Automatic annotation (TrEMBL):
It comes from Porphyra umbilicalis (Purple laver). Residues 106-368 form the Protein kinase domain. Gene3D superfamilies: Pleckstrin-homology domain (PH domain)/Phosphotyrosine-binding domain (PTB) (2.30.29.30), Transferase(Phosphotransferase) domain 1 (1.10.510.10). Residues 425-502, 539-578 are annotated as: Disordered. It comes from the Eukaryota. The keyword Nucleotide-binding applies. It holds the Pfam family Pkinase. Residues 569-578 have a biased composition (Polar residues). Transmembrane segments: none annotated. This is Protein kinase domain-containing protein. CDD domains: STKc_CAMK. Keywords: ATP-binding, Nucleotide-binding. PANTHER family: SERINE/THREONINE-PROTEIN KINASE (PTHR24347).
Amino acid sequence: MSSLRHGAPLAMTGYLDKEGRKFHSRKTRFFKLKDSALFNHRRKDTPPTWGVSLIDSRVSVGSRGDVVLQLFDGKKIVVFPHTRGEADKWVEVLSRASRRKIGNYYGVTGLIGMGSFAEVRIGYDKATSEPVAIKVMKKNKRDSELMRSVECEIGFVSKAVDHPNVVKTYDCFDTRDNLFLVLEHMAGGMLYDVLAKEGYFSEATASGIMRDLLAGVACLHAHDIVHRDIKPENVLAVRSTFPLTVKVADFGLADFVLETSFGDKCTNGMYGTPFFVAPEVIRGEPYGPAVDCWSCGVLLYNMLSGTLPFDGANIKDVLRRVRSGSYDLPDSEWADISPAAKDLVAGLLFLDSKKRLTAAEALEHPWIVSTTLSERVIANDRSALATSSRRARMSSMAIDNVKDALDLENDPADDEDAMAALSRGFDSLPSGEGGVTTSSANDPAASRRRRHTLSSTSNSASPRSGRLGGRSSAPPVPSVPRPVSDAGRGSPRAPSPPGVGALPFVDAGAPARQDNAAGLPAVFSVKSIMSRRLFRQQAVGEEDAGKGRAPVHGAAGAAAAAAPARPQPSVSYDSEGD
């Protein structure tokens, strides 16, 4: 992270003594500093019992060799390092942490858009007035997908990737409640929006775009990073005029590949976008960088023909076709495309991932290195590449129910629900409107997670990662009140730390903006099919009960109705606690 403008996020851990709140007896606790946040653990391997923001705090050494933290909200924390050397080191690092406020270095001028895991704002460097994009991820420890995305972004920043075709990260500020990423501002926006507006598009132009994309992907693979979500929304243009320079963006689903005992570099987990995801991901197999090459092949096919190689009437059809790896090159769209271009598509969409072209090999393909490609305009209609046409079809997902999607029994009612949800999403979704599955309509965290993301640095809203969701015509399943443990009540919530207020947030539970011209996509969940089935069983039982008959539930409905609500773990951030 040495390339960051204002230094890497701070990190320090160690055992310190802390006085008890009531009897002032000292207890040894494990403390962990994460940039500008300090966390207290009973033991090294236990979750934090509390955490505080150190922004704008005062740090001093007391008369007893103790370190005194005077927090911005008036609270005071006193800890006792075990040696004088430890005390000096803690004071130095904690003092630096108190100054790690993004508002000291960057200003904000407006909101680009909101997504499932983040919001992106237009900002500027206070020292140089250079425009930047500021990605803000509001943490929620109960949202495992969000926290995983936060860790993925921090992990990517730690690799210090520097390449002309990868969006640059200028700074990273990791606070108690938020992660701030200061990124290169891509004024051209999403690549496909530029192509949809441009009347002139040739194989020579497409080759240059793919050269940039493959170069960025090859750089990631050289750092043992697999992006896992290469798609149009994550390919951004430096400017909107030709010749285009494009870069890879958004690393919220990125992961590091580890070498196995067989010498393969692999990771796992079902992540991606249905139309661009590789077959091995759908099959639930370990996979490596080849999944990104497959996605590049789908993107190349889409650019040249204006259509998708793996499409279908519903999500199950799409996933089945991706899994089979079968696609066509109809003459109506491919007759005028050169054999070299078709050969590159075939090499990137090879079903066997071990025989698929790597990004480095694709960069040496004749169609990429050629300087004599045709400048003739490709006649295929690319108007469908625009955001307004793509918004319902390009949502990312955590596809952890693919097996259920492919093996789900043919329940006519389920198929009707699925098709209705997809139809609403593809054809008639109002701009900026999102949806939730019936099982999570009353869960703000799930609702925000299923709201839709955008490319982290473009000026246009775009879909990104999140679990497949979708608006349902069925009424929401009544939510069960969530019990709150005594440990979770604690003291009133402290005011927001200084610096956070400099970047105001839109309420996570609020509906998506309706004035977003680009629109945000509907998403559809396999889970919602099964949720609706359960809901119908419950509804029948309620109807029978209303008529004086004993309610009849299916096995799943009975189990769900009988199961007691499980209290959610609560973490108290009371700095005066133990």
